[in-house]
Write a structure and sequence with these properties.
The chain is of the alpha+beta class. The protein has a domain at 368-435. Helices cover 32% and strands 28% of the residues. The chain is built from 15 helices and 34 strands. It has a five-stranded antiparallel β-sheet with strand order 1-2-29-28-27, with no helix packed on it. A hairpin with a 4-residue loop joins strand 13 and strand 14 (167-173). Helix 8 crosses helix 10. It is extended, with a radius of gyration of 44 Å. Mean pLDDT is 80; it is low at 532-547 and 682-688.
């Protein structure tokens, strides 16, 4: 639960914190709650109070038991039962819902206005009936005495659908080209509609005649407001019999008394965004107005801000739970937000434990866990001489460092650097003196760092101011006065190096321009020394001379580029000569490398030959291998070609084959005499 406070009004965000995924089992959820403190401390008021992607509208039934919300994607409606603190049902729809209305006390009768001109009726069991209106609808209201639905949209007509007879009645013809919103007064049933032209038309449903017209666009423009176009009406809400609040597309809220054509009060949100929702809080006389960025609560009599909320995601709709301090919002995010403001009223009956919880929090305000601790890294501990405390109870390990007591840190810092306070004091005194000096009438002083760049910016600003005066435009903010670029003119690390190659090539005319600026700088320094005021043009130099110099610069920029490149080449040549001299002076020591066993040393030319071969085409390589005899290409009978390769043998394999060959020959020579003797003996026996 997240707590925020504005104007001493505490706001409790009950939907803050991480939500657990739906696919997790109950066992894993319980295990996560035991491990993670944030998950254990969070409050899930209504289980799965969210939409798949975005929620667009949210409403509460009249009996207060059911909360209904519509959203995407896919288009659907979800009903939540507050007595069970969980989802009652979910129904998917064919198209996105523009708005909807709960006609009964519970969820048994609902009407949906969809973006495809469809009007869909749902009963307790589900979908009941579907019809279509002639033009695209934007809003509708239900007239209880006659059972009529009034639809407004992209048309000048207001369509009437009677739910008792089940048919369309004659429509109301208005002067507006389009209508955005509508509402019916709950006391005397006056029908009001807000148009795209910034007007509000009031109609009597009994006579079907227009009884009033308010020009809200004209009334919303005050002395302080800045409006680009014609404001249209984006929100409309009645309060009692006589009061009506109107919200415009430019971010103004106008409160009217129906007896007067002038607004009682005009409240501007100052964001220029359309007002999405307006709610009345009768007990405290507050108006709760919301655009897509902020929810403001203000007094309807004085217009004084009571409190405000800026949620993390964009707001689509706001719903105030009746007779309580609970506020719900439909957002541009899956999770729908729930806020509890005890000042507005008590918690609803189904979550009365919130009152006890907030009272306990107010009685025992807990300070932040690490308010009295200082975070230090290992290097900081070594500088303070406290590295020996690592592992003791005085240091608490956290991430890449440690937390230590702030009192111990201050004592150690004072001992390590006893003059730190004196230096800090001097620096503060110097800053205070500079602040007081800044308030005096001063000459235009240039900064210590990047003086030429500052002078260039001042000159450009002067030229721009002259142009804007002629064209009657607004002056752009100065770069020198911008806090984001303040360090560039204070820190010497940001000094522009004019001798670098990049600067000289990008600025070919820098030499001539810098000479002019250097002259100006000298004159400015002399003026500062004498205490004189800075002149628009330096003495002894006419504007004609400057214009002639600028024209010469424009003509000779090519020559200047060539000169700069020549100078750069000469500098590179000198650098190369210096490197060559240094290389000659240095003595190279011979290095020895060990060759592995079974391998022979080959010349370094082999690798070069291989690289040359890899660069050659496949055809050249095949021809070379054919010459060496490792490749044999022949034609086949079919007409294709056949290529056979002989793999090159390594030196070790070649030696092994030669040894095997020699061994075979020796064995053959040994076998020959024995066979010769056998043959002789056989011959002797025959002749015997």
């Amino acid at each position: 639960m997240q707590v925020s406070s504005l104007n001493e009004v505490k706001i409790y965000s009950l939907s803050a914190g991480r939500s657990l995924p739906e696919w997790l089992s109950d066992r894993k959820k319980r295990a996560l709650q035991k491990k993670d403190v944030d998950i254990r401390r969070r409050i899930e008021l209504i289980q799965d109070f969210e939409m798949p992607t975005v929620s667009t509208k949210i409403k509460v039934s009249r009996d207060g038991q059911y909360i209904m919300a519509v959203g995407t994607y896919k288009p659907r409606v979800r009903c939540f039962d507050t007595y069970q603190l969980s989802q009652k049902f979910e129904r998917c729809l064919d198209s996105e819902v523009v708005t909807f209305e709960i006609l009964s006390d519970d969820y048994s009768k609902i009407v949906f206005l969809q973006c495809g001109r469809f009007v869909e009726f749902h009963s307790q069991h589900g979908h009941y009936y579907r019809t279509r209106i002639p033009k695209f609808g934007r809003d509708f209201s239900y007239h209880y005495p006659s059972c009529d639905l009034y639809f407004v949209g992209a048309s000048s007509e207001v369509y009437r659908l009677n739910l008792e007879q089940g048919r369309f009645l004659n429509s109301l013809q208005t002067e507006a080209s389009e209508s955005n919103v509508c509402d019916i007064n709950p006391v005397h049933f006056l029908f009001a509609m807000g148009t795209a032209e910034g007007k509000v038309e009031c109609w009597d449903p009994r006579t079907r005649n227009r009884v009033g017209l308010l020009d809200c666009a004209l009334s919303s423009v005050t002395a302080d407001t800045e409006i680009d176009g014609l404001p249209s009406i984006s929100a409309l809400q009645f309060d009692g019999a006589l009061n009506m609040a109107v919200g415009t597309s430019t971010g103004q809220v106008l409160l009217y008394d129906l007896r007067s054509s002038n607004p009682l009060i005009v409240k501007d949100h100052h964001y220029g965004l359309p007002i999405k929702s307006i709610q009345f809080h009768c007990q405290l006389d507050l108006i709760i107005s919301a655009d897509s960025r902020i929810i403001k609560m203000w007094n309807k009599d004085t217009g004084k801000i009571f409190t405000s909320m800026e949620p993390e995601h964009g707001i689509n709709d706001v719903c105030l739970y009746p007779n309580s301090g609970m506020l719900m919002t439909a957002n541009e995010a899956p999770k729908m937000s729930i806020y509890y403001i005890p000042v507005l009223g008590p918690a609803p009956k189904w979550c009365s434990f919130l009152d006890n919880l907030t009272e306990e929090l107010e009685e025992n305000p807990e300070s932040t866990v690490y308010d009295d601790y200082k975070f230090v890294t290992r290097k900081d501990l070594e500088n303070l001489g406290l590295a020996h405390l690592i592992g003791s109870t005085l240091l608490r390990a956290y991430m890449h460092g440690f937390f230590m007591d702030i009192r111990l840190y201050h004592k150690a810092k004072m001992m390590a650097n006893p003059f730190a306070y004196e230096e800090y004091r001097r620096e503060k005194i110097r800053q205070k003196i500079e602040e007081t000096r800044a308030q005096r009438v001063q000459l235009k002083k240039l900064p210590k760092v990047n003086k030429e760049l500052a002078l260039k910016l001042i000159e450009e600003e002067g030229e721009e101011q002259q142009i804007t005066r002629k064209r009657k435009q607004k002056n752009l903010p100065s770069l020198l006065k911008d806090d984001r670029f303040k360090v560039m003119f204070e820190n010497p690390d940001f000094q522009v190096d004019e001798q670098s190659e990049e600067f000289r090539l990008l600025n070919p005319l820098v030499s001539k321009i810098s000479e002019k600026r250097k002259r100006k700088l000298k004159i400015l320094e002399e003026l500062e020394a004498q205490g004189q005021e800075e002149e628009e043009e330096p003495e002894g130099k006419a504007s004609d001379a400057e214009s002639s110099e600028s024209s010469d610069d424009e003509k000779g920029w090519v020559e200047e580029v060539r000169k700069q490149r020549k100078l750069l080449r000469q500098e590179e040549k000198l650098k190369r000569q210096e490197r060559f001299k240094e290389d000659q002076q240095t003595l190279l020591k011979p290095q020895f490398f060990e060759i592995k066993e079974g391998e022979e040393f080959r010349s370094f030319k082999d690798s070069a030959k291989k690289q040359k071969l890899m660069k050659k085409t496949l055809e050249d390589r095949l021809k070379l291998e054919e010459k060496l005899g490792t490749l044999n290409v022949c034609d086949t009978t079919v007409g294709s070609k056949q290529a056979t390769f002989k793999l090159k043998k390594s030196e070790q394999q070649r030696k092994q084959q030669e040894a095997e060959k020699q061994h075979r020959q020796e064995r053959k020579t040994l076998r020959r005499p024995a066979s010769h003797l056998k043959s002789k003996r056989g011959q002797g026996r025959l002749f015997h």
